[in-house]
Design goal:
alpha/beta, 5-stranded antiparallel β-sheet, 13 helices, about 15% strand
Length: about 375
Amino acid sequence: MGKKKKRGGLEPELKEAATAENHESQNELSLANGDSSSYDNKKKKKSKRDQLNDDAPIEVPTVSVAVPGSIIDNTQSLELATRLAGQIARAVTIFRIDEVVVFDNKSSSGNYSRSSAANRSNRSDENESGAAFLVRLLQYLETPQYLRKVLFSMHSSLRFVGMLPPLDAPHHLRKHEWAPFREGVTLKENAPNSVGTLVDVGLNKNVVVDQVLDPGVRVTVAMGTSRNLDADSPRQVVPPSKPKESGMYWGYKVRYAPNISSVFENCSYKGGYDHLIGTSEHGDIVNSSDLTLPTFRHLLIAFGGLAGLEESIEEDDGLKRKNAREVFHSYFNTCPHQGSRTIRTEEAIFISLQYFQEPISRALRRVEYKSKPEDGKC
């Protein structure tokens, strides 16, 4: 069995972090079905195939957002930068976003280091860019509180996280709460009288899972129906996507992209994003109630920084097309007739996710309708 990657903390190099995710991905089950002239063999194969299909992971549509790390560079202090990251984490959690992609801008991050603004911002870790800071904070805030000390080492960027309101996401469970799934971290101690791994899932007692795993790995544990933690039967480690297959929201994962073209090209989902939405004051004006989005597997909504998505596209040498309308499938102004000359990115995220909430729900209902078998058919 290969080693699993840890899902806490930020890698030293953002280039490595571009492929890291704070949620583990699951290998898809591939089935090969052969023909047989025997009716009995066909029946047996069909029964076996149906059983395998029942165990196969369900592909659930996802919604991602892309935000520029440059918005952190414009803050005047570490405290304000922390508050901004907290606002974004709250927004994506409230609207059940599955993935946050933090991308750099060549024009803003190519020669930027935190030392260039140290005198005015008093931020520490001078070599950490705004994008690295935002990735770290978003990962930290998504992690349940009882796992943070194990998965994150002390870092000066986390100095003010204690003042932020909690996300209170469904997987941020309290000690007295019981749920079908819990997030946990594997421990060094050996499981008593059992072959497996001890996992801290934030309860009064650690649980045993049925796999031998390295210590310090974040895992999703299926808790089952029995609340008896002294039971001999071990719990199971499941993919982080399993709770969502049951209709639960289970947090977001965070990915770093060095530029906006990498947001699209290095998509962590198989097949990539099938619908890209850009937001801008120069976008099309459509009432949310009149907006019909196509059915999708993986939707991405992108937000610009101080100068908008247009600047990010213009400065990216990896994009041959420089017209934003050619880069995105849809390009919308989600807040027309604004009273202020500017809308901050963290404000635009709240406004836009509310704007897209009903159109996305309608698109997802169409997917559910298509996936249901017709009456009398298997």
